[in-house]
Amino acid sequence: MTSSPSNIYPVIWQDDKVFLIDQTRLPEEYNIVEIALVEDMAQAIKTMIVRGAPAIGVAAAYGMYLGAREIETNDLEKFLAQLEQVAQLLRQTRPTAVNLFWAISRMLKTAYESVGTVAEIKSTLLRTARTIQLEDLQTCQAIGARGLSILPTEPQKLSILTHCNAGALATAGYGTALGVIRSAWREQRLARIYADETRPRLQGAKLTAWECVREGIPVTVITDSMAAHCMQKGKIDAVIVGADRIAANGDTANKIGTYSLAIVARAHNIPFFVAAPFSTIDFELVDGSGIAIEERDAREIDRIAKTKICPPGVDFYNPAFDVTPAHLIEAIITEKGAIKPDELINYRSVVSY
Ligand code: MRU
Description:
CATH superfamily of the largest domain: Translation initiation factor eif-2b, domain 2
Structural class: alpha/beta
Number of strands: 16
Bound molecules: 5-S-methyl-1-O-phosphono-5-thio-D-ribulose
CATH class of the largest domain: Alpha Beta
CATH topology of the largest domain: Rossmann fold
Order of helices and strands: EEEHHHHHEHEHEHEEEHEEEEEEE
Strand order of the largest sheet: 6-5-4-7-10-15-16
């Protein structure tokens, strides 16, 4: 595979197996887990061993191949029927990131359109999964380069705030929001990155900070509630976040807390950018009201590390994502350039399922 300057690959294909960086263990431990069966891949996506929209897409593509490999029949019709079940298993893992569904659809389409024996179709599926992975790496590097040209020109070295982890760990290996930030760092346009800790799973404090420290990018971690204060104090020049699903009108689902960040950025006249590949755009949805928002286990809120924090008897609500209305977004930075949300619809033909 083409290498990424980050040198972080959350999904690795080697020796006929998939290996994942266990993102639930970082930064304390760098553990690699082996995935040989589609059931294990589905579980890894559900439990967030692998997470982040494009990385979930890549993992699901390999999951489709692993599932295909397990199918024993040589009868094409039976094979395709069982492959549909594999797709269904993977679709049920996480509802919000459209890259998951995009990758599964692309793998299914490949199988239906391939000519040849079942064994040949299986080989084609593996090649397609590898292509999806490679394309994401290239796409993110293009997003990084495109993003540079839209960043504020003043000051020369920017302080950029990001939320969650939209980095190498969340993609095939470079990042979307963090990809733009990486590119800014290489071009000496970055003073510092502010990383929201991102309650409750702490992807900012754990994963974004880990990636930055590894690469020598100056990073300041703040709690989510400190973002408005940092903006008021003039510490932030721009905000860049990733996305899990973007509707045709530009409404964007991303990690919970993104919406409030967009509101405070607007209140302080700070540009708010979304960086995402076209595989994150769902042109089937006219606006963000139709985006399924994953709700996760209450224990994610009721624990800090392993310590329970709330008294017995309270209720919890734990939506993992929120939707930022398009009017709060300066531009969506894609591999094809920065697009104003209201112009997104003109690119409909770029995405095919
Ligand atoms: O719940 P997660 O960690 O999978 O959520 C990840 C995010 O919200 C990211 O910002 C998004 O997927 C973009 S990743 C390039």
